[in-house]
Amino acid sequence: MRSLSYIIITLLLGYVTAEEKLAKHFSLFSVVTFGNEECTSSSSVAGGATAGTCYSSTECSDKNGMAAGNCASGFGVCCVFLNTGAVASTITENRTRLRNAEYPSIATATTAQSIAYTINKMNSDICQIRLDFDNFIIAGPSVTTENVALSAGTVCQDTLALTTTDVSTWSSMPTGKLCGALIGEHLYVELSPTSSDSLTATLETLVSGTLTPAIAQRVWDIKVSQIECHATYRAPSGCQRYIMEQSGKIISMNFYKVTGSTYSANAQNSGIDIFTSNIKTCIRRAKHMCCVQYDVCTTYNGIALADWENTGGTANMGSKGVFNEGWSFDINTDPFLIDASQVNVGLVDSQCTGDYVEIPSSMSRSCGALFGSHYNGMNTRYCGSKLGANWNYVTAQAKSSSVCDCSEPFSVSIHLDDLNDSVDNNGAGDSMDLAAASLPRGTCLDYKQTPCYS
What we know:
Layout lengths: L1 H26 L10 E3 L10 E5 L1 H6 L3 E6 L4 E5 L1 E2 L5 E3 L4 E4 L14 E7 L5 E12 L21 E6 L12 E2 L6 E6 L7 E7 L8 H4 L2 E10 L12 E3 L3 E5 L25 E7 L5 E8 L2 E2 L2 E2 L2 E4 L10 E4 L2 E2 L17 E3 L7 E8 L14 E7 L18 E3 L4 E7 L25 E10 L3
Parallel strand pairs: 5-7, 6-8, 15-17
Antiparallel strand pairs: 1-2, 2-4, 3-4, 7-14, 8-13, 9-12, 9-14, 10-11, 10-13, 16-29, 17-28, 18-27, 18-29, 19-20, 21-22, 23-29, 24-26, 25-26, 25-27, 25-28
């Protein structure tokens, strides 16, 4: 009996020893798996380090990506996808960057270009495409006023138009046609549940005798991200921009001013309102925050935003008054102001039928303890010479007020139409005229979330 036990124990020990040896042997061939997460490339990429996707070196090669640095503790490579072609192309990889061929230098083409980037879903569970304009400058509007014929719809010289399979015309998209400088901005585009739905971004450049590459300063670097339907960072439905910071700036498109740009036809002409859009910016509520306060920016991109006076019209319709670069998207206030003393005011709600900023269920006051009779004065639309329901007609005292919104979800929509502030609209030099020095730049709002109050 003892001999049998000894033999069994010996066999078991031998089995364990063999198993251990086998495990050690196969550990040399263990498969390492890692997620295809975002990574930062090495600086070897033209223009410097950029975002890529972590893949194995074989996967990166098979996908025609560029390996630039390591990730996943050295088991993967940071795979960068660059599209620098000046012809129509199809994009299927997440985090692809759309760039001009010369990037980071300006585009040198002297002939007209039309590049259609078609972004297909990388899988059926994609609901949004996010475009990050890390660097984007093309020629801006051809005029300095909002003198836009209804049939034209836009005065952009170069254009970027966004369409989808479901919404095939740019005029039906909330973004309209984009141009000028969009540096640092981003846009979300909603896709339908259909797996074949795609986004097409068409970039077209104008060629003229005076709008040379040196003047246009065209350069673009757009990061294309695909957002899965279940992603926690997906933008709320109907939002073209989604901000997660507690404070920052919200601007109308092309508010960014390029150094050295001039306000004349066939020039760079950056920093001017580009019209025909209805872009909604949503703000994610931060913990312990209950309201958002908005104020007209005093500076943007390090440049002070100054007051200017429009002297091109007659005062009795409100177009003759003092405006600020940070709030100058709608000069004509006909027919709501009928007296010369009513210039320099802020209009609200039904008085705003052309260009306006929409902040639903908000108040013309700073955020804070909610008391006072004015607490019940709720507005949704804002326009005119000043931000807020401001009826102080004295020029020296007329100032934009703060606007406070304590109603979730927090959002700001900038609505710009295609027929406003015409020069000599009826041929009689009417009050809609703009002075030559008037610059309807759009709007720039400083926002900050404020704590909850008892």
